Amino acid sequence: MIRYYNSLTKRVDEFHPLVAGRVGLYTCGPTVHDFAHIGNFRAYTWEDLLRRHLEWRGYEVLHVMNITDVEDKIIRKANEAGVDIREYTARYTEAFFEDVRTLHLEPAHHYPRATEHIAEMIELIRRLEERGHTYVSGGSVYFRIASFPAYGKLAGLDREKLIVGARVDADEYTKDDPADFVLWKAHKEGEPSWDSPWGPGRPGWHIECSAMSMKYLGETFDIHTGGVDNKFPHHENEIAQSEGATGKQFVRYWLHCAHLVVDGEKMSKSLGNFYTLRDLLERGHDPRYIRYVLLGTHYRRPLNFSFEALEQARAELSRIDDLVERLEREATESAGEARWQQRVDAAREAFGEALDDDLNISGAMGEIFKLVREVNAGLDRGEVAREDADAVLGFLREADRVVGALFPFEERREEAPPEVLALLEARTRARKERNWAEADRLRDEILARGWVVEDTPRGARLKRR
Ligand code: AMP
Ligand code: ZN
């Protein structure tokens, strides 16, 4: 039984999806005004763990992540750069997808872009208007929170005492109520705009996620996530917009991760402790260890990022690498039966139970390292036979479908697309037949598709170029 801490009910709830066996998951995605920083990737990596765990437990997950490609900062920066927002955001959107691959995050099934869903947003605002939740002022449309008594239920706010949050404050149009928020912004000089029933303008930030999540996941869906900073006002406003328009519950489980901090301090450019994923790669850090650090702290606790933590990740994971090598080298001849099977099954069970418990990753990794210690001791005593080694390796591979960092990244041949794998097979055959010219030609063809072939004592491996 899977349980999550639900920010809406403020307790740990049993998880039951709306439709048995299927999960609709919406994760707030990047605002593509710059490279994503490792704080953002803390959120995305934890969401990846959440999704992989559900899939490992047999659920079919439909995962949607938005790309916010029109918004105040984007418009300002694109104007400064003298290009239109499309050109400006294309670069950072591409970089984001590259980072997703680098960290081995499972790609979402849909990455809806805000600028491609303006019609859906206008339609949603129209429905809100029909139900009396909006007013127009100076060509902009606002959500009147006084019309939605449940406002504040997620963030646990008392409506009477609402203070103006940053995003709300950033809006410079006149409003009836300081916490009312903008749904449609009237056109301003130098800003991109679209036609609407209220005149030319552009959507507010919050309406994007309501419109796009409901389009792909339905008016009520299972899980919506983001970092804690998204809880208010963004997610509170999403609830008001969606439930105000449909009269139905919007999201059943709201999950939020705590922030990443650096050496105990908030990450900020002025403190000089601000890192994008690219910064870390440039310093030579292996994405496998970065992923492991981002995953390793329970998502509801602040994650303290440091270079020592990366070093510790390397040390911890090398214990698994060492065991894998030992199993390949030192397992004894077949003993006729797998004596370790029961022990491995118990590890699998405990690993799963820990993750079922609100994604207790430390508990889950603890089970893996306990097994690693015991199997090492077994190898010392010469008590691990070939079939035991296979059972242990099988479990580690299985657990890695969830963790995604137990094995070195470059060894994961299965990551390459099928046509590249087929070329590699053909090259291996050509080499066996000593047809060197053909083997070289195939190697070049593989290279042209973005993969490098490395010949190792254990056979050919593929690495991303
Ligand atoms: P943004 O691009 O600012 O909308 O943020 C994208 C995602 O990253 C959201 O889910 C944020 O809540 C999350 N996020 C932003 N900063 C941090 C941080 N320091 N630690 C963890 N998550 C963060
Ligand atoms: Zn969002």
Describe the fold and architecture.
With 465 residues, the chain is an alpha/beta fold. 46% of the residues lie in helices and 15% in strands. Mean pLDDT is 92; it is low at 163-175. The strands form five sheets. A four-stranded parallel beta sheet has the order 4-3-9-10, with helices on both faces. Strands 5-6-7-8 form a four-stranded antiparallel beta sheet. It has three domains: 3-257, HUPs (Rossmann fold), CATH 3.40.50; 277-403, Isoleucyl-tRNA Synthetase, Domain 1 (Orthogonal Bundle); 418-464, no CATH class. The protein is globular and about 80 Å long. It is built from 15 helices and 14 strands. It binds adenosine monophosphate and zinc ion.
Give the tags.
single chain, 465 residues, alpha/beta, Rossmann fold, Isoleucyl-tRNA Synthetase, Domain 1, 3 domains, four-stranded parallel sheet, four-stranded antiparallel sheet, 46% helix, globular, binds adenosine monophosphate, binds zinc ion
